[in-house]
# Entry
Amino acid sequence: MVIYGVSFLGACYILGQLLGEFLAKWIGVKANVGGVGFAMLFLILAHDYFNKRKLFSAEAEKGILFWSQMYIPVIVAMSATQNVVVALDSGLLAILAGVIPVFMCFACIPLLVKLTKSPLNN
Amino acid sequence: MEIIVNFFEKNGLIVAFVAVGIISYLGFLISKHVLKNKIPGAAVSILLGLIVAYFAGLHTGGSKGIADISIFSGMSLLGGSMFRDFAIVSTAMGASFMLIRQTGLAGAIALVLGTTVSFVGGAIIAMFFGYHDAKSIATIGAGACTFIVGPVTGAALQASSEVIALSIATGVVKSIFVTISTPFIAPYIGLNNAHSAMIYGGMMSTTSGVSAGLAATDTKLVPYGALTATFATGMGCLLCPSVFYLILEKIL
# Structure
């Protein structure tokens, strides 16, 4: 059933996010640390585990695939609810401090890719 | 009229589904016929979303874009962090654990480097604009990481509320700029595989910017970028008010 997939996804989400909350508390940070990342790892590993034992039906998988296809619409909704006015009106400092470091980071990416690309990956 | 408004408010999430469907349809239409597929439909739709948010913000004076118009209040639920994170997690289904493990170390390096570069960049610009105290400079530098790291750092260092507001604005500008610029810059920085996507996610820090930027570039890359980006806010909240602030204080 489709709900099994959605429920499975929900369980991974809850476990991952909770782990992120506790990890944050443990290292003394006022934010969720990697909750989404942990949830993703749980989903990949658990799905792999159940799939190998043929415990994951195609129907259940549809429950997860639906949400991964809803991803872009959710992002569109997120964009439509951003505070764009304050971003544009907050003056030159906020705009420059928001834009220039992004260019600096973009410039670092090819460098880091080259440095970390082991011969194994090619 | 009142009946319709009340009805829309009560069924906010469903109204949001319809509204996003219309924005996406327009986005794909513009992409296909006006831009001749040069810019992907997803990117145009996201940009349309931002434009809608701008005009809605001008109209209402609120901070939540179109969601401040009461009949569209459901948009803040559909576009809020719960649905966003849930949908991001679901994209991991197609991701390869092998690739993630191979790139794990690179992603971690990117996280530290991304936080450092953003902080330093933001801090230098703050100094150019006449800020001289370590607290304000650190808060604005933290804002250049993400719009959560800024206020968290500012609160921890007891920066002035004006500076904290500025750091949030900086983070919001960054998130929007990453969203818009990623599809254009992607070809020049080799952003077309899992390896570079994980590094990109760590370097850019902002989960919303990364997830939207990759969605507009290539959906297959979303899980890899999002995976590292989701650790970035925690990393920034850890480093900015502590190590980075202390170093800054020593220098000044």
